Amino acid sequence: MTGPRYTKLVQTLSASVPFVGPEEQERSRGAPFLARLGANENVFGPSPKAIAAMQSEAGDIWKYGDPTSHDLRHALAAHLGVGIENIVVGEGIDALLGYLVRLLVEPGDMVVTSEGAYPTFNYHVAGFGGTLHKVPYAADREDLEALCAKAAQVRAKLVYLANPDNPMGTWHQGSKVAEMLDRLPKGCLLLLDEAYIEFAPDGTAPEINVEDPRVIRMRTFSKAYGMAGARVGYAFGAAELIASFDKIRNHFGMNRAAQAGALAALQDHDWLAQTQENVAIARQQITRIAHENGLHALPSATNFVAVDCGHDGDFARQVLHALVDKGVFVRMPFVAPQDRCIRVSCGRPEDLSVVAQHLPASLTDARRQQTARGKLT
To answer: Which residues pair with 305 in a beta bridge?
Structure first.
């Protein structure tokens, strides 16, 4: 009896999971979380019109979804002021990242990203044999100059930039991002992840001609539109690049109900505005809670806030574990020095009251453990 014959590349990769979901953590701890604030989900939820649209499709769920996402792409084209040929819809940004890497990256190809940036992109690059080069953050922001310099040094094929950034919530002016294009090496594509763009200040989105072949931009319905479980993302860029996705994407990957929900969500401007206001209020509340506990909250252009715990990553991990033990699901950056922070998603007042209730004791627990280890005096 023999097993499957894996590729040589797959045999070199370790099996790991970048994010342990809250459901798995709840099973491990034997109790549900009191506040679910770790995955940057939009707890304010989707537009009621989106919910109604998805419910109306339930009876027809026996049908495959439109493989071209025709209606949604037309609506997105109007929303962005581009042509339908400039847009591809996929199963969230994660899937679109995988498709793009499959299109561009062969074994040995050079790819540049930031150390500690969104790790799912790195998994795709590794899975297709690309060589990742990482540059550190500068002042808790992705370092645009360093990304360009590294790309030129290694003659990168692809550069990943999230603006606004995850996990720190920081951002760059769109004009600075646009200036990057002239500093990238010939034949290098800038992958601009704009998952949180609806929460960002005016001017964060760069003004770039959609037919510029040096950039592709990705956005999602998971964050501002509150549809993370529906898995709807989209990319827009030069028509030739977008057409190439049809060569390799899963043409029936898009859920029929999710397409209808996304279309309705996109058209409900009032709900989006209310969500943006709710998130802004929640960011202020998280900042206040941090301040009341002697901590510093980083400015954020996303639906989460990175809270500096004031010591190193080991201390922040103790704070995080203590919060999780008390029923508060939060996460933290993976890489130093950003791992001195915990990351708290924006929530309703009742969610944040749980954070306010349990953070003081969690800090006390962390200080006690660190003192016992001789790391705090």
So the answer is: 344
Which H or E run includes 74? helix 70-80
Write the burial class of residue 58 (CB in 10 Å: 0-12 exposed, 13-18 middle, 19+ buried): exposed
Q: Is the pLDDT of residue 195 over 90?
A: yes
Would the pTM count as exceeding 0.90?
yes
Query: How many CB atoms neighbour CB 141 within 10 A?
Result: 17
Whole-number Å distance between alpha carbons of 289 and 281: 12
Please state, in angstroms and rounded to a whole number, the distance separating the CA atoms of residues 242 and 240: 6
3-state secondary structure of 13: coil
What CA–CA distances, in Å, run from 280 to 134, 148, 217, 291, 351?
Answer: 32, 32, 24, 17, 15
Residue 315 three-state SS: helix
Q: Counting Cβ atoms within 10 Å, is residue 30 exposed (0-12), middle (13-18) or buried (19+)?
A: exposed
Query: For 14-66, what is each residue's pLDDT tens digit?
Result: 888 788 899 999 999 999 999 999 999 999 999 999 999 999 999 999 999 99
Residue 376: predicted pLDDT? 73
Per-residue pLDDT, 294: 98
Alpha-carbon distances of 255 from 47, 196, 227, 291, 360, rounded to whole Å: 18, 22, 12, 43, 43
**How many other C-beta atoms are found inside a 10 Å radius of the C-beta of residue 101?**
24
Distances (CA, A) of 106 to 109, 177, 227, 239: 6, 26, 33, 22
pLDDT, one tens digit per residue, over 139-158 is 999 999 999 999 999 999 99
- Give the per-residue pLDDT at 159: 98
